[in-house]
What we know:
The protein contains no helices and ten strands. By secondary structure, the protein is mainly beta. The strands form three sheets. Strands 6-3-9-10 form a four-stranded mixed beta sheet, with no helix packed on it. A four-stranded antiparallel beta sheet has the order 5-4-7-8, with no helix packed on it.
Amino acid sequence: AVAAQFSVTTAVGANRSAVAYETGGGIAAGVLPDTGAVVPAGKSKVRVVNLAQNSSIDIWRTQPDFQTGIRFQFPFPYNPEPGPYFQSDAGEWSVWITPTSDWSQRLSELTLNVPSGERRTVAVVDSAGVLRLRALVE
């Protein structure tokens, strides 16, 4: 049996996202850092964390003020620390992952509506060998 353990101390009313992910020799767990990123009225923010070990992917987005697909970061390796927030207008974001070798093949897609003044973290996870995207409300 493999176990991961951690403890969290937080202020009353604060939200935290706990994650568990595979490492080279087992499972690790932790809390995604809260950057304190303030989201202005009329805007939204999205960031991504790649929790899928051994993935060779690019991760793309469209955002409310830019409807052409653009990569979040490249390359986008496994890393349990999330990337930076990207800011746009409030509204619909689309996020998808492709193999680094074939940008036309979408492995997983997610559409999320991020209201004014809010932010989201999108996690890339490996679920029984299938890469998936999961949105975390902060």
